[in-house]
Predict the structure.
Amino acid sequence: MMGYYILLGAIALVSWLVSNKLKSKFKFYSKVHLKNGMSGAEIAEKMLADHGIRDVKVVSTPGMLTDHYNPANKTVNLSEGVYNQRNASAAAVAAHECGHAVQHAEAYEWLGLRSKLVPIVNVTSGMSQWVVFGGLALGAAAGLGFGYWVAVAGLIMMGMATVFSLVTLPVEYDASNRALAWLKNKNIVTPEEYKGSEDALKWAARTYLVAAIGSLATLVYWGLQVFGGRD
């Protein structure tokens, strides 16, 4: 178990460092005010309109970095700071979330797959580790039948969360690429503002990368615990 705690600590540390860096980047670029004077909400509405999307609403949601696109009710949810502010950070986030709306409208395959995985992961992610623990306690590592299959069931549940994390990567990177291309091609931001938006989205993407690596590392660790003791 000591190895697991070390792994958890390392993942948590890297995640904390990246998250802190992301927050500092957004704070820094929030001081780069847009010369066009547009708010995050206005940018989002324009990007949707430019892509011919008329059935998605842009709404304000409480909190910081709580921005997301909800494909179920077709809403681009922008945190209060992004919704109202007129800076490079707000432009980046607003356009990124609209990037997801564009993906949805164009039936982007990776977004569709992620959406299908959501209900499965919501059910399995919270219990997977406990199922693996239970299987190991019942003798999975020693090759005892029932415990082994319980542990394997837990690993499959854990694997679904890992697949979800990996599928999320192309979804997020593609949304950022769509956002940056639109910001640049439509001259929504100046070259300086564009650099800020690009850097902010780069650090946002790294949070998903760290999560995916952490999920994969955890799955591999428990897989070795279950299968490592078998002949």
In short: The longest helix spans residues 145-185. The mean pLDDT is 92. Strands lie at 57-61, 68-70, 75-79. The chain has eight helices and three strands.
